[in-house]
Amino acid sequence: xxxxxxxxxxHGGNDPxxxxxxxxxxxxxxxxxxxxxxxxxxxxxxVVYTRTSDVYETPFxxxxxxxxxxxxxxxxxxxxxxxxxxxxxxxxxxxxxxAGIKKEMAANINAELKKVGYNDLGTDIRPNLxxxxxxxxxxxxxxxxxxxxxxxxxxxxxxxxxxxDAIAKxxxxxxxxxxxxxxxxxxxxxxxxxxxxxxxINSDNNMECICDREExxxxxxxxxxxxxxxxxxxxxxxMEDIPAFIIYENGLxxxxxxxxxxxxxxxKMERRLRRMGYNTYITT
Length: 284
Ligand SMILES: [Zn+2]
What we know:
- The structure is a single chain.
- By secondary structure, the protein is an alpha/beta fold.
- 45% of the residues lie in helices and 24% in strands.
- The chain is built from nine helices and twelve strands.
- Residues 10-11, 17, 25, 78 line the site of zinc ion (ZN).
């Protein structure tokens, strides 16, 4: 599979993360991240690590590293902690918002970890975490059990390979599905899906429109001479549940999102796209 995945072991260097009976989160995350990365590499994935030794870098630097690598996904590995020892146990996955392929990847990882024996605490929405917010690609953060839970630590140590394998399986399963989708969905089908989406948007806003000639707003995310490049951007947007499409105009393949009757709605979408790292402008 032709994917680049960033694996980010949480904390490091003078930031140990959570600590329990001398056990440091930064060591667990590094060991687990390297094991997950190994399995991904064995499956043909190009893996980029934010660190492979005991060093500290800010989450912002790590997100920037991922962006510069032009990666397709960003996977941060952490361990959870709570106030009192053995208060909670289980694994969870954090994502920026409940949309797109990252939501699916989070659910797949949770399901695989449950098979290893962890209590499945599900998916959490965390819009303020830097590695989820500042990354331009879909990003997830896996909390691989509580470091202050003896039950989770026993699983982590005794089923170490299976834990790494579960996370890798969840990632690979999602990537395979995305690859299938890209391969088996024609541009026409994508445009049809877009039209259905747009009809819904339009019917919502229809009632207050009293004008004869109304302006329709769209958000443009890119313009390419090469159709394949436009198609790549289109696929990425559609996988994030963004109603995108391509138009051919003045010798350029333009990737646009929307059809909004209200400028407000176009601006909202533009903000979301900019957060995802797209250079956008609104067109009518
Ligand atoms: Zn952490």
